[in-house]
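We treat protein structure as text, and this decision shapes the records that our systems exchange. The tokens are whole numbers drawn from a learned vocabulary of local backbone shapes. One such record is reproduced below, unchanged from the form in which we store it:
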Amino acid sequence: MKRLFLLLPATLVIGLYSYLFFLTVTSDLNFYKFSYLVYGDFTATTAIIENFHRNALTWPLQYPLFCGEQITYHFGFMALVGLVEKLVPNLTIALNLVSIAALVFLVIFTYLVSLKLFKDKTVAALSPIVYLFNPSLEWVYLIRHVAHEGLKETIKVSNFFAAGPYRPSDVISVFWNLNTFINQRHLILGFALVLALIYIDLTGRRKTEQGRVEQSRVERFLLLKILGVLLLTIINKAALLIYLLYLGASFILANKYLAKIPICFFLRLIRKKCSLDKKQITWVVTKAKSSLLALALIMVTTLLILQTFYGQFSRDLPNARIHYRPGFLVDSVQYKHSYPTFVKWTLYLVENFTLLPIAAVGGFILAYKSNKQNRLSHIALMATAFGSLFTAFIVRFSSDPAVNHKLVNFFIYLSAIYTIYFILKLKNIPLKALTLSWFILTLSLNLTADVIPYLNSDYARFLRPERSRVSKWILQHTNPTDCFLNLTYETMPITLTGRYVFFSWDYYPMSAGYNTLARREQIKFALKHLYRYNSKEKLCELMDKNNLKYIFLHLNNRAEKFADIQIFSDKFKSFPAEFKDSKSMIISYQKLCHDH
């Protein structure tokens, strides 16, 4: 009976997410179907998946939705799905199977890390629940909807009850609910790998001569850590940053006198007394040297991998630059009143995290007092959790807060584990009852609010390549590395074949750091020249310069607004078409510009 209890939380988490994975991403004989709650992200990620599925060995790696540019989006999870699709020839099944496998991996290491930290099977067994836990006041939106519309209408809702920052009037972020893992499947694998590396570190501690447990230093299991950095770099860069924060915290804690050197140097500069005795200096030289070299090796490896795969240090990517921007997450909210900055931050923290930070600190204090052997490990993990949260609030990694939310997610999940420990070990009955009530009510109500929209969501449907005349023609008549000058935001007939497009919906390449403005201006210039002078010279120059092989456009929309450009398909009907049906037209660069 006890074993069933231990397995129940993990079974609940894996079962619910697996159901939602297949509910939101599915297919039938003719269509791939993506829930409207997730299809925005999957329009971009499926392009990467299919590119690896059909064109896995092309180097250098290009971003399929912005061809000609080296990829800047972490692609490891999508590449894995693309390879699995070779064995399971269905995009949605391959994606869901890899997602479930990653989730099982995550749940296992959540249990193992919790067990290692707290030495308590009950805490470890309950730990997977954190992936269903949303600490925000989203439930207020649910109750408000019931009060205004009634229960019958509420259970039919197909949109998230709180959708900040994409609905700026909502203070509550959509990033803390189930949408995190359902939309961001690669984050599951990233977090699982971080926890696996932390578990390896926790098991690598050894006893000193005095019998006390020493915090494992960075150099232990160095090859595994370098391999972990390699995988994190291509799987999820936010997870990589979290792991580097953990390594930094562990390094400082393991080498306590090392931190005193720069402090003393600074104090000496301002004419304050500070000294390191000979014994301490000897300790730094003999004990910290190997850890410092190991940490340096890991950091150099990280930079080399980032440069190799993404080329992030050799090109001008204005949208990808890291900025010091305090309040980046808070600024996305449109408050009804003009509050001072401090009040805005306070309201945002309270509405999105409620009691979680306080309960987590309480759990940390109890764990620190009860387990002397793991004290440095607890400090390192809490420093990583709160360091991730702090970084997310003061640094802007991209024009979109997607990177920042992943740092906050790790804080939420790790803090929730400490909260579970706090509830179970707290001896103050009134405080324990209050915290337990808050945890259960928040979990159940927010989980209800999160699940309802998925049950009611309709689907965006995209013809499977073998069912689409356009896609079948592309597969049969073009090369896997060909890039299309697409004059429409609808690119799925191309990207589902693994081919490349020149310019997708602005949000995808912009949030990945590409200079969308410059490319849009190139398209506008070429097309204005075509319309004004009835000359295809600039259009051919654009295609030749960027190695574009084909033009793709819709014929059934005479004035589609694409990238701030009015596209009139009648202008292209006089051009020689390689492929044409009632909806689409494909024109080759060779026939357009060189055949006479």
